Amino acid sequence: MNSTSSDVTTTLTRIRDYIRWGASQFAANQIFLGHGTVTALDEAAAIVLHTLHQPYHLADSYLDATLTMAEREQVVDLILKRIRERKPSAYLTHEAIFAGLSFYVDERVLVPRSPIAELIEQRFGPWVDEEQIFNVLDLCTGSACIAIACAYAFPEAQIDAVELSGDACAVARINIDKHDVSDQVTLFQSDLFADLPKKPYDIIVSNPPYVSVAEWEGLPHEYHAEPAMGFKGGENGLDLVGRILADANDYLAEHGILIVEVGSSAETLQQLFPQVPFYWLEFERGGEGVFLLTAEQVKQYHSLFLNAL
Known about the structure:
Number of domains: 2
Distance between the termini: 56 Å
Number of strands: 9
Number of helices: 14
CATH superfamily of the largest domain: Vaccinia Virus protein VP39
Helix content: 25-40%
Strand content: 5-15%
Oligomer: single chain
Strand order of the largest sheet: 5-4-3-6-7-9-8
CATH architecture of the largest domain: 3-Layer(aba) Sandwich
Structural class: alpha/beta
Largest sheet: 7 strands, mixed
Radius of gyration: 21 Å
């Protein structure tokens, strides 16, 4: 530990001191936020509380607790590592919170942060009858956060989670075992629908790669610490989205819904299919670029989607 770190650990004693100091360091060093936290204070709190093995909703009264010297050193080391390496904090703590659930993450998967979490917490209401949800498909599952959150939301449903990357599948398996949902969540290593048994799904949900190559190249360093495969969606960002739209018709139940996150490629998608009435969902906690189509709409525009491939 250098002299500056030593000064900090000697001077600062309480949990709240290190959260404040960490936030100041992040702001001064212009750390990019975009992986689950909105402010430097939130980022610092996440790192400090994780390091101390405390919950993120720790009561304010405990923030005045005095840390041992060993705890102070661990906290300072991790905060400085976040600044030095410019990696998302979830890669340093190996934990991300999604839909109120804790997931293991590392550099083999994107850090969970999709606004779809809010939709899952609402059990996709008012778009479906939650008592009639028996089969859910999560395409491009990554860490399996969406699939596992759906398992909690619909305890009577079977969830199929599809992922092409073998590395990501390994992380997904860790989380399936961690949440003890292997009897409910089935993991498939597949290129979208290619190796998936054909059956009707009440919900197909996906957060696929949707970033254009040019946009990806200009993203902040923290994003480049994540697997490029999870971002790149071709020249216009919509290579995989187009395939999902073309094939979903064969897998949606009669009253099913298709929900896909396309993020910054939303405008491009709407321009590509101006006649398709994509319903763009709104989220109280922020986030955009997530569309919904009913099975009827997917069927109606099926030939259009096929011809666009």
